[in-house]
Amino acid sequence: QKEVEQDPGPLSVPEGAIVSLNCTYSNSAFQYFMWYRQYSRKGPELLMYTYSSGNKEDGRFTAQVDKSSKYISLFIRDSQPSDSATYLCAPISNFGNEKLTFGTGTRLTIIP
Amino acid sequence: NAGVTQTPKFQVLKTGQSMTLQCAQDMNHNSMYWYRQDPGMGLRLIYYSASEGTTDKGEVPNGYNVSRLNKREFSLRLESAAPSQTSVYFCASRVTGVYEQYFGPGTRLTVT
Question: Which residue stretches of chain B have pLDDT < 70?
Fold first, then answer.
């Protein structure tokens, strides 16, 4: 079993829709949960991160973690064509740990 | 500030040829990483360097060598390229103990 599982998609939704992207993980030691966004033919860039369980909101983006079920979600409200990208989840146990484990990424397309 | 730069952007090799992928960062980061990204596999860590003069294996190190030339530069060498090494290679860096990794634009390598 992979440490981090993510539905690869692709996922296509109309502009303005709410998007839900999800990951599951198996390592109970993970405490920090990051989401990276990767535009086509570019390197990933950090979108946001959360610590432990709960929600964190940043503009139209909300990251949610449920440690009891080892489930991570990223919600995008009022989705825009500029949100079309691949989204990768990346949990880690602590920031002293050099090895970051990425999900496979979900490819998202927002249709105008 | 150029951030993380990678050369070359594209490369085609024949099986058995060797080459070195170059990476440099101008952010004074301690830690540097090499990943490969393949469809359905996500980002996988090849090697990393927690500081100048140290390197460690990641998840998929076979067939690769690395050199941390100085604090700025971290190179990845393929001694005898194989078709299985066809991939997109990303270099990344971060300040040790801080969560965010900064990625370069990638090198697209094809081995025929």
Answer: none
Q: Are strands A106-111 and A11-14 parallel, antiparallel or unpaired?
A: parallel
Residue B92 sits at the chain A interface (C-beta within 8 Å) = yes
Task: Please choose, from the candidates B96, B112, B92, B95, the residue with its C-alpha nearest in 3D space to the C-alpha of residue B104.
Answer: B92
One-letter amino acid for residue B79 of the chain = E
Q: B80 CA to chain A: closest CA distance, Å?
A: 26
Is the CB of A100 less than 8 angstroms away from the CB of B41? no
Q: In this predicted structure, what is the pLDDT of residue A12?
A: 96
Q: What is the DSSP string of A46-105?
A: EEEEEESSEEEEETTEEEEEETTTTEEEEEESS--GGG-EEEEEEEES-TT---PPPP--
Contacts of A32 in chain B (CB under 8 A): 99
Distance of CA A85 to the CA centre of its chain: 11
| Confidence tier at A60 by pLDDT (50, 70, 90) | very high
**Which chain B residues have a beta carbon less than 8 Å from that of A96?**
96-97
Residues of B in contact with A5 (CB under 8 A): none
More confident residue, A93 or B63: B63
Among A52, A19, A46, A47, smallest CA distance to A33 is for: A52
